[in-house]
Amino acid sequence: MSEQLQHVHLNDTHVALGAKMVPFAGFNMPVLYTNLIEEHICVRQQVGVFDVSHMGEFYLKGERALDLIQYVCSNDASKLVDGKVQYSCLPNDQGGIVDDLLVYRVKENEYMLVVNASNIEKDWNWISSHNSFGVEMTNQSDEYSLFAVQGPKAILALQKLTGVDLLSMPYYSFKIGQMAGIDEVIISNTGYTGAGGFEIYVKNEQALAMWNAIFEAGSEFGIKPIGLGARDTLRTEMGYCLYGHDIDDTTSPIEAGLSWITSFNKNFIASDIHAKIKAEGAKKKLVGFEMIDRGIPRQHYPIVNEAGEYIGEVTSGTQSPNLSKGIGMGYVKTEYAKVGTEIYVQIRDKSLKAVVVKMPFI
Amino acid sequence: MNFPEQLKYTQEHEWIRLEGDVAIVGITDFAQGELGDIVFVEVETVGKNIAKDAVFGTVEAVKTVSDLFLPVAGEVIEFNTALNNSPELINSDPYGEGWIVKLKPSNLGDLSELMDVATYKSFVAH
């Protein structure tokens, strides 16, 4: 595997915009353009654009494409109809998670899977190794750019660019149509910010034209480019899991609160392990918590009870730009997972009080 | 970026300025820019004697946490309590209202070993 940093197609555009570029998941990515809190608020109140072209896109085609997807994914993809999207995860054979992903049903016998950049190779190898169904798989990750246009004004900006009726599109649906004069754009009512908006998949050759068109259309709504820093605070405020933080090779979707994407009316890899966890009750659970004492939780900080005994670990944490206080997610022993339970986060040798809350945080 | 002439600087991006026998310490414009929005400053070393380069506090931005290192040995005598409610002063005025602690250096001569503005500027440029 090459250690060299990959570049998204619009790398030079981000540099020219003054973005701070950092290595992330093997890509040189814009983490910040101007100011994290400003970018965060821009998405919550107006509209912002993330270049998330590092994400991976696999196409699965063939008569048994659904059978393969049903076997490698936790969610029930048989519920998908053309133009619908489903959040799912790839369980490993040890009771953990290979990755979380989106499954798009393009048409009968044709699906697109969208996976995390850091896991493209791992996912590809994993799915391929279970493809005893004769499904034709292609990895088109290097061909697509992906722009997440997020925020309450996103629909107003994008509607100026397309004849597709965006208002009629339900959450987690997509259409393939013309946008900004470009054909065969995948217009997806998805995103990972909780602010509403769309994700736009476009071939690299048209990426710059699309980017420019989106910014021109959005200028009257105060559109801004948004870095990965704000993407992380936005998803954390919603309590959305990030692979490598809140879920990984060792966590069960049941423990992670992802039972809702884990369907036991079909057989999938290691489904017996997860069914057992579900039946017996998870020993640990992913919870959201807010700091009561002043402090900011960070990944890997220990969580303890009032007696100072270790009960778990923080997996994501930040100062919430919307709430102006520390919020976090972490695994705790199940007896501490109930909303309202007081827990303590160890920050620099001090145990600071926090309380388990319902997510999303905002 | 703004780097005042009369200050001394460290490789950890703190600045120090002498007023009589009291030194005032903060972080540089470069440091605040790298950290981004500062949301929390914790200093619990007031009244303590601390060695040069030892941690005297912590500054937290939205996404990162960073230790604060004392530029010279001495006793921390005051924390800028305005930062409790307005940590963003470090972003808006790093050399003025965003100062972090005052200290009594053990040896005033120690300051002369720190970087002057020209040296710090070239240090930051690399």
UniProtKB/TrEMBL annotation, chain B:
Any Pfam family from its record, for instance, is GCV_H
Origin: domain of life: Bacteria
Q: Which residues carry this modification: N6-lipoyllysine?
A: 63
Where is each Lipoyl-binding domain found? 22-104
Cofactor(s) the protein needs: (R)-lipoate
* Co-factor note (free text): Binds 1 lipoyl cofactor covalently.
Q: What are the entry keywords?
A: Lipoyl
Q: Which InterPro entries match?
A: 2-oxoA_DH_lipoyl-BS (IPR003016), Biotin_lipoyl (IPR000089), GCV_H (IPR002930), GCV_H/Fam206 (IPR033753), GCV_H_sub (IPR017453), Single_hybrid_motif (IPR011053)
Sum up the protein's function in the record's words.
The glycine cleavage system catalyzes the degradation of glycine. The H protein shuttles the methylamine group of glycine from the P protein to the T protein.
The record describes its quaternary structure and partners as: The glycine cleavage system is composed of four proteins: P, T, L and H.
Q: Which HAMAP family match?
A: GcvH
Q: Which family does it belong to?
A: Belongs to the GcvH family.
Q: What is the protein name for this chain? A: Glycine cleavage system H protein
* Organism the protein comes from: Aquirufa aurantiipilula
